[in-house]
Amino acid sequence: MAGGETPAMADRRELEELLEDRDVSSHLLTKLKHAQLMSRAALEDELARMDLTISQFLALATIERNPEISSAELARQSYVSPQAMMTIVARMETAKLIVRKPSKRGGRALHLALTADGARLLEEGRVHAGAIERYLVDTLGAPEYRRLLESLDTITAALGSSETTRTAPWHSYARADAGAPAAPPARQRTSRPR
């Protein structure tokens, strides 16, 4: 360490050097995307053995958690368009995984409910998803796995609030000497995360 430099200062300096690396594959946002793609592929492979898609699996889990959920609300909570959710719901209805029932609150609104087959398939999907996560616990170790979950929650909260996306506070972190373009004007985010 340079004279008077603390370990924390050295760590920060090393991280700054990493952030300046022109190879985007070494950066956090790229690594998060690669991890997401690999975890999605692993889950898709497992669910495909059950003739289930990830979208259907997540929709079934959301329906189970939310009695009286409508197709429109399911689309919002799943971050997909209402049109895409209509297709997912129609396929699950045809497969007899869900049914539409009149709302207990009355009116013409219909809500979605799991059938016995839907509940069984959801539970089977959880077993397969859980197996992937247990493998990752063994790979990382329990303390590191917990830290990863906490870190992902922190990242989601830091980048996910509407106030953050509106103000884009990271613009103040762009290094002027690195040739970064001027920060674009702040705008309201209109699309949902994928």
Descriptors:
single chain, 194 residues, mainly alpha, two-stranded antiparallel sheet, 8 helices, elongated
Provide an overview of this structure:
There is one protein chain. The chain starts with 6 loop residues before the first helix and ends in a 27-residue tail after the last helix. The longest helix is centred in the middle third of the chain and has 25 residues, at 116-140. The model has no long low-confidence stretch (mean pLDDT 85). Helices cover 60% and strands 5% of the residues. It has 194 residues and is mainly α. It contains 8 helices and 2 strands; from the N terminus they run αααααββααα. It has a two-stranded antiparallel ribbon with strand order 1-2.
What distance lies between the first and last C-alpha atoms, to the nearest angstrom?
42 Å
**Most strands sheet:** 2 strands, antiparallel
The number of helical elements comes to: 8
Radius of gyration: 22 Å
List the helices and strands in order. Answer: HHHHHEEHHH
Report the portion of residues in β strands: 5-15%
* Rough outline: elongated
Entry summary:
It contains eight helices and two strands; from the N terminus they run αααααββααα. The chain is mainly alpha-helical.
